[in-house]
Amino acid sequence: MNHLDPVRHVRGESQYIDDVPVQQGTLHAVVFESPLAHGRLRAIHVADALNAAGVIRILTAADIPGENQIGGIVPDEPLLAEGHVHFRGQPVALVLAETEHQAQAALHLIRVDIDPLPIITDPRVAAAQGELIVPPRTFRIGDSGAAWSQCAHIFEGEAETGGQEHLYIETQGAYAFPTEMGGVRIISSTQGPTAVQRHTAHVLGIGMHQIEVDVTRLGGGFGGKEDQATPWGALAALGAFVARRPVKLVLDRMADMRMTGKRHPYSSDFRIGLDANLRILAYEATFYQNAGAAADLSPAVLERTLFHATNTYFIPNVTATAYSCRTNLPPNTAFRGFGGPQGMFVVEAAIVRAAEALGVAASEIQRRNLLRENDLFPYRQPAEMCNAGLAWDTAEQVYDLPKLRAEVAAFNQQNEQCKKGLSVMPICFGISFTKTAMNQARALVHIYTDGTVGVSTGAVEMGQGVNTKIAQVAAQTLGISPNRVKVESTNTTRVANTSPSAASATADLNGKATQLACEALRERLLRHACTEYTLHYEGLDIRNEQVLSAGQPADTTWEKLVSSAYWQRVSLTENAHYATPDIHFDPVTNQGYPFAYHVYGTAYTTVTLDCLRGTYTFDAVRIVHDFGESMNPAIDQGQIEGGAVQGIGWMTMEELLYNDEGRLLSNSLNSYKIPDLYSVPQRLDVHFLETPGHPRAVLRSKAVGEPPLMYGIGAYFAVREAIRAFRPAHQPTFSAPITPEKVLLNLYPALAPTATSAVVVSN
Ligand code: LUZ
Ligand code: MOS
Fold this sequence. Notes:
Layout: H1 6-10, E1 27-33, E2 39-45, H2 47-50, E3 55-59, E4 84-85, E5 91-97, H3 100-107, E6 111-116, H4 123-128, E7 137-141, H5 144-147, E8 153-161, E9 173-178, E10 184-188, H6 193-204, E11 211-215, H7 230-243, E12 247-250, H8 253-259, E13 266-274, E14 280-292, H9 298-307, E15 317-326, H10 340-358, H11 362-368, H12 388-399, H13 401-414, E16 418-431, E17 440-447, E18 453-457, H14 466-478, E19 485-487, E20 490-491, H15 506-533, E21 540-543, E22 546-549, E23 552-557, H16 558-567, E24 573-579, E25 584-586, E26 591-593, E27 597-610, E28 616-625, H17 633-652, E29 684-688, H18 713-726, E30 734-736, H19 740-747
Parallel strand pairs: 1-12, 8-30, 10-11, 14-15, 18-19, 28-29
Antiparallel strand pairs: 1-5, 2-4, 2-6, 3-5, 7-15, 8-13, 9-10, 9-12, 11-20, 13-14, 16-27, 17-18, 17-24, 21-22, 22-23, 25-26, 27-28
Helix pairs in contact: 6-7, 9-10, 10-11, 12-13, 14-15, 15-16, 17-18
The structure holds pteridine-2,4(1H,3H)-dione and dioxothiomolybdenum(VI) ion (MOS).
């Protein structure tokens, strides 16, 4: 089945927030941002701006009727700054005007008095000063301290990964409408409609039942709208609540880049110990997460870093500790992989450090330490239905690793100015929200009297194709054509208390709920058929909209059956609840069984490096991926391709830069480079690993959202290999992204800037 949306997308018919017809009386909102990264907020002067043409109101923290608080895990984030400012771009005031242009013009007339305070942008500096968001966490198995004495080889080092801008094509935004009895209806570009509802109710000081949030689709989310759609929804709602007029708030691209958080940069230390046979005996890692100025989702991201600290390897003695460090940057947030990629980069760096020092291929160490069936992760869940070895072996066979290696070696022999590099990147990713309670979903299914079907769930469509999958589940379970099924907007009034569409788990959770609802309806209709047409329940079925009795067409069709059920007053509506079975996790002991299952895979990345210019081209990324029994291979392959390229961008060209004043320098697409047609791999192969899938995955079709991003980590190590082909004795520091500039500095260290030639960036 094709993805339902792309035809509408390319025709421009799909509706995003900015396409919603503007209602008469709508006010346009823009946000006044803190011009400083840290300080005491003494006064906000709005009188001049209030006199500007078209300006209706300017709202500050003092206008908030409820509590000025939108923190999720930790209540440390005001909706509008009060008393202090903690990052540049922090919302301070909301201007409401008749037109967006008038609102923008008024921004320049607002002045604030701020007494500057010291600014921290570096997570290690924050940790040294005790600026932690939550107490540090440690995952431990075995006794790494005692294991060092048994190691034949021990290596240590540091590894850094940068942030990443989500760059969803649709920027953040919301459109809020006052409703009767003091409520608000919000159209929001959010992955988490319930989060917008809950926080808005809290800010307005009213019940959640007074707030309705509706989401048709997003133009991309990638984690950036899991928590951080909330401020814009709440601000628009605040405007609508106070002014009693509709309020539209859509960030322009540069405002979005300045004001919103991104993937967390990490700075980490590692120590790895191996025996004489290259088995990893011990691993210690310390992670410093740059959380930004408020907790947001950082503690959960930090936890997932620890869950994935050993990637797809079995290591018997592990101590991994993580610090969530408060800095004066916008609060960093969920981004595809959710801390997992940052943890996996460090263990891969440790393996590469060992391999380079020992003069063996990194893949030799990787292969010998792959997880096997029932090996324990440091959090004590066993690797069950473990496909790590199968994915590795299949890649070797399908893509002929020895031949690829020989080609790279031959090329490097024959070329001096260009060098090739090849990396192997095996991955393992746990599927479920690590907070067990979030692994629940509901589906509300209506069958209409003409036999068409409406399905509502908590799943948000953001391009990933979840609506198509839900329509498939409903159609397959009911025995009807997907053309009869409509997946409705995600709406908090129809389906309540939803988890965000996140953690790769959306299709599993909402698809399973849809399946349960449709199974109940199907059974009810078949029971009705028994009495209505005097048939035996055993052997009754619906296939292709035909009722079958013991395999033979009965004298009724789907349409007739539905209609007769209605006239016999049989309910054609079902609401089902699904909660992932078997999972649990204790955040005190850091042990349990947190994941429904794991997804595995292996990627080979080949790069050609121009050693004169420092530029590189990815020749090929060759992937073997564990889809289970894919229910939609076209959508799933698209997720793998997109994820891999997004990961390559993070590891190579996407360089997020803040200066010491906490000002974003890479603040537009002029200065922040993402993969385009010219920089994607020339060839991207995806091989479907043949496995029976997993019973906790919807229709045994495994989650595909986040795991492929981590194939992109291979891009970093492929470029590093190519650098070392040019300068064999050189061991670059582990610092991603490995931009062409960093490549050049590694190829020609004499080019490195001295203190006196430091780059000056003007305002
Ligand atoms: N969001 C969340 C996530 O709240 N919990 C998670 O475990 C998670 N994992 C991946 C992506 N988003
Ligand atoms: Mo996400 S990083 O699954 O919102």
